[in-house]
Every structure is written in C-alpha cells, then in structure tokens.
Amino acid sequence: MFRKRGANFLLTLSATVLVVFFAPTAAGPGIPEIKAYLNGIDTPNMYGASTLFVKIIGSIGAVSAGLDLGKEGPLVHIGSCIASLLGQGGTDKHRVKWRWYRIMNNDRDRRDLITCGASSGVCAAFRSPVGGVLFALEEVATWWRSAILWRTFFSTAVVVVVLRAFIEFCSSGKCGLFGNGGLIMFDVSNVTVHYNMMDILGVALIGLIGGVLGSLYNYALHKVLRLYSLINERGKLAKILLSLTVSIFTSVCLYGLPFLVGCTKCDPSISKFECSTTGRTGNYKRFNCPKGYYNDLASLLFSTNDDAVRNIFSTNTPGEFHSVSLVIYFVLYCILGLFTFGIAVPSGLFLPIILIGSAYGRLLGIAMGSYTKIDRGLYAVLGAASLMAGSMRMTVSLCVIFLELTNNLLLLPVTMLVLLIAKSVGDCFNPSIYEIILELKGLPFLDANPEPWMRNISVAELADVKPPLISLRGLEKVSRIVDILRNTTHNGFPVIDDDVTVPSSEGTKARELHGLILRAHLVAVLKKKWFLNQPRKTEEWEVRQRFSWVELAERDLDFEQVAISKNEMEMYVDLHPFTNKTPYTVVEDMSVAKAMVLFRQVALRHLLIVPKYQGAGIYPVIGILTRQDLRAHNIQTVFPHIAKTKGREKQK
Amino acid sequence: MFRKRGANFLLTLSATVLVVFFAPTAAGPGIPEIKAYLNGIDTPNMYGASTLFVKIIGSIGAVSAGLDLGKEGPLVHIGSCIASLLGQGGTDKHRVKWRWYRIMNNDRDRRDLITCGASSGVCAAFRSPVGGVLFALEEVATWWRSAILWRTFFSTAVVVVVLRAFIEFCSSGKCGLFGNGGLIMFDVSNVTVHYNMMDILGVALIGLIGGVLGSLYNYALHKVLRLYSLINERGKLAKILLSLTVSIFTSVCLYGLPFLVGCTKCDPSISKFECSTTGRTGNYKRFNCPKGYYNDLASLLFSTNDDAVRNIFSTNTPGEFHSVSLVIYFVLYCILGLFTFGIAVPSGLFLPIILIGSAYGRLLGIAMGSYTKIDRGLYAVLGAASLMAGSMRMTVSLCVIFLELTNNLLLLPVTMLVLLIAKSVGDCFNPSIYEIILELKGLPFLDANPEPWMRNISVAELADVKPPLISLRGLEKVSRIVDILRNTTHNGFPVIDDDVTVPSSEGTKARELHGLILRAHLVAVLKKKWFLNQPRKTEEWEVRQRFSWVELAERDLDFEQVAISKNEMEMYVDLHPFTNKTPYTVVEDMSVAKAMVLFRQVALRHLLIVPKYQGAGIYPVIGILTRQDLRAHNIQTVFPHIAKTKGREKQK
C-alpha cells in the first residue's frame, strides 16, 4: 500500500514539474482561457505544442496519482490545442507553408477550429457527441453562426466513430480499463423510471440543495484560489511544494478513512466473485474485512474516479452504501475538490463536482427512504446533475451530457427540472464558476449584455475621460511614427487627411477620415524601411511589390530591434495603403450600452467615435473605444457615482 | 368503407373552408413565416386568435381526414400563436392592460416568446424536449442569446412534464390513441446495435441517397407549389376544389392500392390476436385476406400516419413487409406528399418526409439482404433521418429528435454520419425546403452571411442608385411632413439641423445630424395635432404631457383619416423629442458586405450612411439603407454586371 502511495507522490511530482517548468499555461482546466479566446482575448502560449504535450502527460500523471481532479477540462484544452496546431499547420517554429493553409489562417476560422476542438474534447471525455456540441455552444462560444453548429457536430461525429472503433477493438480486454462501459459510461438504463407527483417534490429538493451547494462551492473555491495565488506568487518551489502537500494529504485520507467504517456482509444474491474483491475494479472491495464481507467506503475510495461514480450511480442496490460512509465521502471530496483544483497540474472541474454531487444525491435518496419510488442510483445521478448546474450554470448541455452518460431517456423530464431549479437558485447568489475564474485571472471578458446603467453614459463622455486622442496623417513623418509607437501602447490609430478635395462637390476642401491603422502595420512598415523622400501618395503596385500578403497578416509588435538613422527619421511614410478604410463608427451621442452591443455583436477591437456635427473646423474623430474602455469594471472606476446604482440588476 | 371516405371528404372540406374564409395565414406549416418573423419580417395576421383557432381545428380535421400531412409544423405555429397571445395579454381587440405586461411588450421579448413557443411546439409534436430547443436554435432563430437557450429549455421542460402527466393519466386507455408509445414515440431500443466497418458503407449509402432524394423532393415541391400558387390565385373556390381533389385522390389510392398485393401468411410465432386484425392499430391488417393471413400494404395504408411509421420502424420483423408493397408505398407517398402540402389546410412537412424516408430505408435494408447485420427497422429509421436532412438540411436538431423518438443511443454515431452525408449532398444541389418556401412567399429574409461579391460594392454606390435622400429639419413645417408622408413610403427619415452652434468650439456653426425619425412617430404627431405657431424647441415635460409611453410604442401607420386644415398646414412641429438621437451609421466607403454584417448582427431596420469628409458645405447624411436594399437579389437587379459573378460561392 505504501508503494502505491509513493507512486502517487512521484506521479504528482512529475506532473507538477512538467507544468511549472515547461508550460505554466497547462495548469488548470483551460476552459476559461478558451472561453476568453473565443471572446477575443488571446492568452499567450495557450495553444502551443509544448502546452499540448505537457497537458497530455501532466493530465495522465495527475489523474493516475489519485488526485481528486478530472480529465474533462484538460481534454477540452487538448482538443483546442490540436485544432489550433492543425489550423496553422504546425508549431510556430516548424510550420507547413502550404498555400491552401492560408485560407484558414484568419481569426474567424481559427476561432471556429478551436470551438470544434473544445466540443471534441467534451465528446471524448464523456463519450457524448451532442453534449459536446451543446457545451461548446452554451458555455464556450461567444459568437455563434449556423455554420459552426454543423462543423462542431461533424467533429464530434468523427470523435465518436473513432471512439467506437477503439471500443470495438478493445472489447476483448486488450486495452486495460479503456472502453469500460462502452459508449455509455454510467449506464442506468436498466431501471424503469416510475414516479408520481410526490416524487417531483423530492426532485425539486435535490435541485434546490444543488443550487445552494453549488454556489457555496463557487464561493469557497474563489477564496481558496485567491489564497493559492498568493502562495504561487512565491515562485516555482512553492508551487511544487503545494502540489506535493495536497498529494500527501489525499493519499493519507484515501488510505486512512476506510478504517473508520465497519464491514458489511455481502448480499447472498450476489455471486462470490463479485462481492468482496481485491482487484482494481468492482463494486465491493474487501479491504480489511473477512471473506464474504466488504468495506463500502473502501469500495468508493480505492477505485478510479470513474469507477467510483459508477459505484455510486449503481442501481437496484439500495443497501450497498451506508449513510455514514457516504457522509465521510461527501465531506472528504468537498475538501479535496476545493484544495486540489488550484494546484499546478492539469485539472478538470467536472469529475470532482460529479463525485460530490452523486454522494449527496444518494444520501438524499437514503434519507427519503420509503417516501420515494425512485431508485437511489438515480438520486445519485440527479444529485450530480444538480451540483453541476448549481456550480457551472449550464442547462441544455448538461442535460444532454447526462442523458448520454446514463442512457435513460425517461429520466429526461426530472433531469430538466433539477437542472433548471439548481441553475436558478445558484444564479441568485453568485456568477458561474467559469466567470469567477475568468475574473480571478483578470481576463477582460466582454459580457453578452450591457449593464442597465450603461444607457446613461454617452460614448463622448467616456472618450472625454480617456487620454487625448492620437491620430496620424496619411503621409506621416517617420519620426512622428516612431515617437508615437514608443510613447503609447495603443493598438490602433485613426488616419486623417487634411485639405482633401471632395470629389462630389468640386472645389470644396475638407478633412477626410481615411480610416484606422493598426500598430502591427506601422511596425511592419518601419521594419521594411519603406520610406519616401517626399510626402507623395504611392501606387498600389508599389506596395504589393514590397509587402506580401503573409507579411501583413503577421501580428508582430516587437519594435525595439528596428534601428532608424537620423536621416531616415526625416523621411515620410505613405500610410494610406495600410489603412483599414472602413472602420466601424458610432455617433458621439450614442450610449455606451448601444455601442457595446455593436462592439460585441460585430466582434470589434476598435470603434471610432465621430462627431454628429458637420462643418469647417470640426475634427472628424472624437475618440476611439477599445474592449478595456467598455468593461463595466473600468467604467465604474472613472465614473464612481455610477457604481452606486450597480447592484445585480444585470439583465441575464 | 365508403362512409369512411365520405367522412374524410367532409373533414377536408371543413378544414379548407375554415382556412380559406377565416384565416388564410393558417394554411401550410407556418414555420417559414415564424423563421421570417424572427429575422425581422412581420407577416400580418400571423399570430392572432382566429389563426390559432383555425390552425387547431383545421389541423385536427386535415390529419384525421387521412391526408398525407403532419401535425408537427402546425403545432409549432400553434405554440408560437399561444406565446404571442400570452405575451401581449390577449387578442388585439380584447387585451389585458396590466402594467407589468408592458415590460414584455417590446420586439425582443416578443421574439423570445415566439422562439419558446416554436420549441414547445416541436417538443409537443415529437415528445422531444432537447430536440425542440435545438430545432428553435438551428432552424428558426436568427439571433441567439444565451438567455434564450435556457428559456426555451424551460418551456420545453414544462411541456414534457405536462405531457408525461397526461400520459400517466391516460395510461389506462381512457384517451384513445393519445399517449401511445409513451414519451418515446417510435421505440427501437429493444435492438442491440452491432455493426462493423462494412455496415458503415451501407449507412453512407443511405445518407447519399437521402441527400439526392431530399434535394429532388425540394426541386419537385418547388415546381408543384408554383403551379398551386397559379391555381390559388383564381379565388377561394379554386382553393377549395383543389383540396377536395387531393382528398378524393388520396382516398382512392389508399383504398384501391392494397388490392394490388397478395396476402401473407402470419408468422406462427406471433399470437393470433396480434396478427391479422381489423382494428384501428396493430402491425398486421387482415383487409381482404382470410383468417391467419394479412395484407402488408393495408397494414401501412389503413392506419394513422403515426402507426404507419411505427410499423415501418418495427424491429425484429425482417419478413413483415414485401419489397413490392414498400415500393408502391414509397411511390404513392412521394406523389401524395408533393401534391398535399400546398393545399389550403394546416399541414406539416415532417411526417410525409419521415414516411417516404422510412419506406426507402427499409427497402434498402431488404436490398442489402445478408450483407448487413443491422436490423431492417433501423434501416427505416436511418432512411427517414437521411431524407429529413436531405430536404431540411438540419443536423444537430434532427439527430436529437431522432434520438428522442427512437430511444436508442447506440445508434447515435451512425445517425450522425447519415445526417451529415445527406445534408452535405443536398447542399450541393439546392437550398433547404424552408429557404425555398421563404423565397416563393417573397419574404425578404436576410441571410446570415453576405455574398462574396458584396465586398466589391460600397454603400455609397448603393445609395447612388436609390431615389434621392429625403431628410427633415428638426423644426419642420406641417405641410412638408404631410407632403412627404403622402408621396413616399419610407419608414425612417434622417433629421438634420442647420446652423447649430457647436458646444465644444464656441462660435462655430455647423450642420447637425440629429438622428432618425420613424414614420409611425410622424403619424402620431399629426394625429395629436401637436403643432406650434412658431418654430421653437419644446421642453421635455411638454411632450410627456401630451404623449404617453404607450402611444409612442404603437406602430400605427394609418395616416389617411387625419384631416389637417389649411391654417394648420402653415404651422410647425418640433421633431426633436421624437427622434432617435443615436442611429447606427456607416462610413460611405464601407463595403455592402461589411454593412450587412452590422445590419444583421445588431438587428437594424435603418442604417445611415455618413460621409467620410468633414467640412463646410458637406451634407451629414449620404443615404439610408434598409433591409430591401441589402438583399442580394435586389442589389443584382440594379448592378446587373455583378450577377455574372454570382454562382454558388456563398459561404455556408
């Protein structure tokens, strides 16, 4: 037994070392970062080859170390990594330069691919193809097009066909535990579900408790993660020590606690080979008991997490688990779940929550006793579903995932009820767990709906409190560009031409809003040193000759290496060819709420504010809005009087 | 037998008369109109009480008349009608005027309610809650927010709980055929699905044929519907005669064709009570055969459509149906399906397509013979799924609907494969059936993606070919408003003030784009005769005193009744309080494609085009774009040279 614990310790150590030294972004589930990416926030090094490698190896290590974490979140991240690498044709260093790859090399297709990868991950984790599609739709994706729907559907279809082929191949037991349970992981279809109106009350109670527990879990996890971030700031050694402490604590609990409960006599109707075994799987573990007896807590603790779920979900076995064992199990996994999630290994949230939820569900089933006709195994299923909904606040996708996990369609109405109640109750207390993690990580996630108070501020007021606008001329001096790039961190600049002749009315001179230029393009021009002695407009072919399509698509912002001589500083650049001539604009009077709807729906990075007046001497741009300007939190900082009216009136 | 046919005739007559005289909008499935409504196109009298009533009664009549049409589409429409009536608190004439109803009385909430209604309809039709949610998402809705996801989920949850309660109540046979099949309508879960790689080929073949047949069906239905629209234009009598002809033809075929096939001896393993019955339900109908024998075609034709599906789907009955009977059935229902859909009764497309598809699927199963291990009933299921996907081009929702109809989760991988192949093959030939109907009805549906050639036209070019812009001043003469309302049909006008002092730079005079005013508000002002003797700016309280919130929310465009005297014609109106001060704008250089993305994503009705120049003498608005201006078809009419590059390059 101690050898086994030692192995757990080493596995945890190697997973942590891999993560800490080679790919820190591989820690945790990765789902919040994917969600943020699809919202328009790129986390660096998130989808690289090293992350993928560490995530796979680390996740295997962490799960087999017996830690209380799941492989579901990591699988979603792994799917996204593979999708991203396939989409760009290899790693950043070794990349296939095929021509047809370029048509996919844009932000939208990359987002689509990563969405497909995420849904494939869920599909592989739960063997749930439709659930995977819905998970991507409900939880991960920000923008949804009908094309993504069938693309994700296609990728999960491929996953499930491959999975099935492997299961077929492994059915003779060649592959260890793989394929256990077939395509349905936790089958409860052998129970015919009968329930009457009284049972609905019990089910509603599960949902209620699930919602309360779920939001409590979110609250506690938030506190633990904040504590952990303080520890993790101390350096790599602190991270490793933290992981090892958790690992030792887990091992001690798993090995020690079964001694607390007594032995149970095997039900004579069960064959001797099934009851009281010492193998890896099976519902009845002998542990410290004599032959013919089993230790029910050991049956839960000494198996893989998947098998533990299968044991708790097991139906037609009303007396198998005692309430004392289940209470110990529930409390233990609450503690383990909270303290394991934040350590520096790849870890998923799904399975820990399912374990806690199923334990309390089965407990509730025992407590209901003869008042209910529903099997205790089904109570465990519903408990798991309710805690998931209470913590993650998903509905449709969880419903389908549970349907595909348990293969009992007649359970659908009650599952829906439980999920809706748990989600609604949870929403009264705090946001979902992923939103909490997003905020902890400081990712500027753009919410779907503007806060109601945003209607009372205009974009011009918002522009007023920002630093003054910096704009460029179409024919600009090199020195000014260098100056601006050095002294600001903006990513986009409006380009404005003075004294342009308006084609429609000859003779009229006016200012022209030529468009918006990106920092990356300014850097590209400086790097190529495409400077002109005179300020003159260039022809299109001149630009094409110098800049390839690929070069302009690169987003290279590293400007420090460029050395520009004094002579060159006095030269000019024609910015017109690099300018996006049709930026999206809003009129100065528009409310922030309305601008935010535009910003998010059209998926913008920069939004120009134009004046509502038209006349001589009026500057054609008032300001520029970015994602950070439109975040509720940032607006409240500059308009403190608004913060008072905040509350939780946000329209969901 | 002739009495039965007479009853069918009368039922068809009454359904048609109801539809023709009381609610012409109740004809057909109603799904295309709901789809259009959620895209922003309101069909008049679509969700009224009379439509609801006629749809319910008419649908019952049409289905019980034995016509080849389903109740699924009508149920979706019924759900939407109920949702709409609930949302506005009653019919247009008798409406509850509760205060809290007003918070729901806006376009967005009305759209949400109708989406919920549609998903509840699908849920009720197929007893498929998750399928209903996905149908609303994939096929019906244009804009999707995460809030709608759990709202539709909630409504389908309520539907399924109510359904289950009724099924429980009716389980003793009190309610006739209701509740047959329980929550799972066509249960095929008793077959264990085993298939190998060879079977996948057969399955791919089903998908291929389904795609080809589905697009052929769409093509033929398009032709028939065009023919029917010529007939229907002749008046009400023509409509009624058409319905009755179809009814008689159906009756003759249903009664006459079973004589063509011979009798089959009952399988001795089946009990006498099951084989060779004369009742309403059952798999084996005796018809013209002696005792102990059954007529397999009569078994299909003499039962309700639901039972026919159940019979064709029936598993473990390899020899029950002969291929001759199935061929006759297939051809008959192809003809009936095409010619029944367009008649003036409430009719759904789902069931006819399922019937045709299941027949050809089972035929294919028989043809495969010993090459396949998959049951012939499952072939029928897959055939039905493939034809649906080939005609309607849905994937995820169909997959879940079929899963919930048949309760066999192990069939999921093959179903997904079939659906994807059928959809992809169908997409090569023509658009989906709903898109075809939308185009036939002339509804200006706004597609999700702009056509690629739209990138080559700027919005200014589009504005150039439109009639000149009509704009109003903030303080406008009554006579000019009346004049404009009489001579144009525009629904929105820009409001522009001349010679305004710009607050930021004192002394500068400029033109101000004050905003956009709606025709409905101009009519409201004229009706109230809120005229001023002098052109002066009014105060906010003056407006509040005269116009209630509700009056301004009304969309009353009827302007003819307003009598305005000559004196009043010389007076002024202050339009400022009624103007939307922050219309969405685009710069003149923007491509039509980009403008269309904005237009659709933010769900606009009017989009102002502003100049990129800023200077004296430049008019602040260049043009105004509406839904009609952005439709691909309309642009091609005014830019004929573009039409050549069209092709089918549209990015799906």
UniProtKB/TrEMBL annotation, chains A, B:
It comes from the Eukaryota. Residues 579-644 form the CBS domain. The chain crosses the membrane at residues 46-67, 143-163, 200-219, 240-261, 326-356, 377-403, 409-426. The keyword Isomerase does not apply. SUPFAM superfamilies: CBS-domain pair (SSF54631), Clc chloride channel (SSF81340). The keyword Transmembrane helix applies. Its main location: membrane. CDD domains: CBS_pair_voltage-gated_CLC_euk_bac. InterPro entries: CBS_dom, CBS_dom_sf, Cl-channel/antiporter, Cl-channel_core, Cl_channel_pln, ClC. Keywords: CBS domain, Chloride, Chloride channel, Ion channel, Ion transport, Membrane, Repeat, Signal, Transmembrane, Transmembrane helix, Transport, Voltage-gated channel. Belongs to the chloride channel (TC 2.A.49) family. This is Chloride channel protein. It comes from Spinacia oleracea. The gene is LOC110790477.
